[in-house]
Write a structure and sequence with these properties.
The complex is a heterotrimer of chains A (76), B (163) and C (373).
Chain A lengths: L1 H18 L26 H14 L17
Chain B lengths: L1 H14 L16 E4 L5 E2 L7 E7 L4 H17 L4 E7 L4 H10 L6 E3 L4 H5 L7 E5 L5 E6 L5 H14 L1
Parallel strand pairs in B: 3-4, 4-5
Antiparallel strand pairs in B: 1-2, 1-5, 3-6, 6-7
Chain C lengths: L6 H20 L13 E11 L2 E13 L4 E14 L2 H6 L3 E16 L2 E12 L2 E14 L4 E15 L6 E18 L2 E14 L7 E4 L2 E4 L5 E15 L3 E12 L4 E13 L3 E12 L25 E16 L7 E19 L6 E16 L1
Antiparallel strand pairs in C: 1-2, 1-18, 2-3, 3-4, 4-5, 5-6, 6-7, 7-8, 8-9, 9-12, 10-11, 12-13, 13-14, 14-15, 15-16, 16-17, 17-18
The chains are: A mainly alpha (76), B alpha/beta (163), C mainly beta (373).
């Protein structure tokens, strides 16, 4: 019962946040000109981003939370 | 007890449906904008024609795909009381004129470069197409564009022309 | 907050709730704002040289969709490697080999949800990797917010080219991301990724050192890690944008790594773009790493990738806008060239000959031709 209640609140919150008719996006669709610009993209050129991500992943201990989904290799 | 835990959910669902500020059935808000035809165009002066009001931008990909389809509809029905008004919202009018020309648009391009009219019409998607009847009333709203929408446009235009 | 095998179950529940959230959001308040990525072909040549290793080759990426509901992408990448790296030099001789990597995937768009399913395979003479990935992205709040969730599963086969040695490892990746438009000039994103590996996790050729003598490395058979990142992109009136990235990494091997990157993108002329960036990375060593153990331990590693080190990168990239038109087969074409210098400095990994802390500078270069159609 407690779980059902929690799920209800969670779903309710989601719906309120997403659907509130009075809730307006503060950047309207017709104001998205700059956001649509290539220099405002996190991955403007995926091929070069992927290559750099690979260069680092092979030589550093950290991996993940980047913009690329990697594969594995035996790179030394 | 089960009803008690579901009731807030039902209440919240009912709040979640979006409402467009510009509704089907209302009179299309009047405006005057400069156009590619060199003179200003006022919406109310075009009453008596079926009008397709299309809001587009050079940076919006679906808008660019849609434009040639709108030109086809324009050339097909313009002689029987139909017109297309392409309201462009770019800040740069020259860029917009050039793109419209390159895409083959011969219908009037209106420049809403301060986005005042977009705000007036509460544009919720890009592109946004509205079909206005001969009495100046908004009859259909088409947010966005996907291939195949032009068929729906044609059906609606024919229906409005027959009235 | 460590992520271990037991927490898989909790994560699975969280992911199920996340998916439920997705489904619910996707059926209400549809703005139809999500668009598929543009159709394009990228042809690239890449080059790396540093620490005795040279890797270069071509890379090809093609994407084609129907503008309406799906977009298919395929990639092919080759690494021609010549390695006389310090690890190799210490115990073997220079070698050359080729690694081929292929990927194939599809994006499916329905209302404001994009589902991506992809397969990736990498093959070289002594290492095979196959992975399958599923990602979903959902836009809401009128396209202001995008929520991403992803899952990958992979199996790698680790071999030796000089004998029949063959072991496997399994890898699972869970991703969550939230990207938010803050103002009409500013977008940010928060990302989380947990990776769990199980199996043979070390390099079969590498040795550890105990009191100066080389012994086989011994690694734990599991490794789980978590990475958190924050990214920000802001546009400025001088027709440019500033990019900021920070990532924090932590794992069950005791490694903690910080990555920070600052970049500036600027339009030169009407459409050409110059990008300059600076990146700093530092990490501390794994708990079972040592340059030279004073006694034999249960786990022993001498991989410089697991040592205490830092690296600094300066990168410059110039994109030349060749053409853009609304007729013809190709609608746009750009060519870009990048060069980067990465300086690695190790605090507790020494050169096997000199005994000094190892360091080297690597050069990375890329030339990319992009064509949109």
């Amino acid at each position: 019962m407690k779980l059902l209640y929690k799920i209800n609140i969670f779903i309710g919150l989601c719906l309120i946040l997403s659907g509130c008719s009075s809730w307006e996006p503060w950047v309207q669709p017709y104001e998205r000109e700059i956001l649509a610009d290539p220099i405002m993209s996190f991955t403007r050129e995926p091929s070069t981003e992927n290559h750099f991500a690979h260069v680092y992943e092979v030589r550093e201990g950290s991996r993940g939370a980047g913009s690329t989904v990697g594969g594995g290799c035996g790179c030394n | 007890m089960k009803l008690k835990s579901i009731f807030p959910l039902i209440l919240l669902i009912s709040l979640s449906f979006p409402a467009y500020a510009v509704k089907v059935g209302q009179t299309a808000p009047d405006f005057t904008l400069s156009s590619s035809a060199k003179h200003n165009i006022r919406l109310a002066e075009l009453r008596g024609q079926v009008i397709m009001l299309n809001f587009w931008a050079t940076w919006c990909n679906p808008c660019r795909v849609e434009l040639p389809h709108l030109q086809k509809l324009y050339s097909q029905y313009k002689d029987i009381g139909f017109t297309v008004l392409g309201v462009n919202i770019d800040k740069n009018k020259t860029k917009a004129s050039k793109m419209a020309r390159d895409l083959g648009a011969q219908f009037p391009i209106l420049f809403d470069n301060t986005q005042k009219i977009s705000k007036l019409y509460s544009i919720k998607a890009m592109p946004m197409t509205l079909l206005i009847d001969r009495d100046g009333k908004i009859r259909h709203l088409f947010p966005g564009y996907k291939p195949g929408y032009e068929i729906k446009y044609a059906e609606t235009i024919r229906k409005l022309l027959r009235e | 907050m460590m992520f271990d095998q037991m927490q898989f179950k909790t994560t699975n529940t969280t992911i199920c709730i996340g998916l439920l959230f997705f489904v619910l959001l996707s059926i209400i308040n549809i703005a139809n704002a999500a668009v598929l990525a543009e159709d394009r072909a990228d042809i690239m040549t890449h080059y790396y040289s540093g620490g005795g290793v040279t890797a270069q080759g071509p890379a090809l990426l093609v994407r084609k969709g129907n503008d309406e509901s799906y977009s298919i992408f395929a990639g092919y990448y080759v690494d021609n490697v010549t390695s006389a790296s310090i690890d190799v030099e210490a115990q073997a001789s220079e070698y050359s080999e080729t690694r081929d990597e292929m990927s194939l995937g599809i994006d499916y768009l329905y209302n404001d949800t994009i589902t991506t399913f992809s397969y990736n395979t990498s093959e070289e003479s002594d290492y095979l990797s196959d992975s399958v990935n599923l990602d979903m992205s959902q836009e809401f709040f009128g396209g202001m917010t995008t929520f991403n969730i992803g899952y990958s599963t992979a199996t790698d086969t680790v071999k030796r080219s000089d004998n029949d040695f063959s072991e496997e490892l399994d890898r699972y990746r869970y991703r969550l991301g939230l990207s938010q438009i803050l103002t009409k000039n500013w977008i940010t994103s928060l990302n989380y990724e947990a990776i769990a590996e199980k199996g043979f996790l070390n390099n079969p050729y590498r040795s550890a050192r105990v009191l100066g003598a080389y012994v086989p490395e011994r690694y734990p058979s599991t490794r789980t890690s978590e990475a958190y990142s924050l990214r920000s992109l802001t546009y400025f009136d001088w027709r440019g944008s500033i990019k900021f990235d920070y990532r924090f990494f932590t794992d069950t091997w005791g490694i903690q790594g910080d990555t920070i990157e600052l970049g500036v993108n600027k339009y030169l002329g009407e459409k050409n773009i110059l990008e300059v960036s600076y990146r700093l990375y530092s990490q501390n060593k794994a708990s079972f790493y040592s340059d030279n153990f004073s006694a034999e331990m249960v786990y022993m590693a001498r991989d410089k990738e697991l040592s205490t080190f830092n690296d600094t990168t300066i990168k410059a990239k110039y994109t030349y806008h060749m053409f853009e038109k609304d007729s013809g087969f190709f609608s746009k074409g750009t060519v870009s060239g990048s060069v980067a210098l990465i300086e690695f400095e190790y605090d507790d990994y020494t050169h096997y000959q000199t005994g000094e802390n190892y360091s080297y500078t690597a050069t990375v270069a890329q030339i990319l031709l992009s064509l949109w159609f």
